[in-house]
């Protein structure tokens, strides 16, 4: 989909096929296990009554900043697993807080691989939680995730100020 035009018929069919792909279905099926694993990697989440809240986002952010104090351009396989789990946890939290939306499997930007993103009703852009965690690590601005969540809940506010 272009930034200023709707999907063409071919693009709609491709998008629909991607949502039924075995890879995406397996990824969706692994959510509970992935979230449970991530809680063990971020001890602050286990201390919360409900880790999938703004307090959980703050714990995710604090843990990511501690884990990547001086981020480089290359990422190890172990770090990539961590980032993927963090992105899933962020997306899960956003979906719960907004109360609507869903995971979709697509290529957000030309040249990027196909992957998971969030689609919310009434919001004309996809949200990429993997980009959200990268913003935390490389932007190093406090409350990045909570501000993004607030913007999603109150869509009148720009996502990134």
From TrEMBL:
The protein's name in its UniProt record: DUF3806 domain-containing protein
Source organism of this protein record: Nocardia halotolerans
Region called Disordered, residue ranges: 1-20
Organismal lineage: Bacteria, Bacillati, Actinomycetota, Actinomycetes, Mycobacteriales
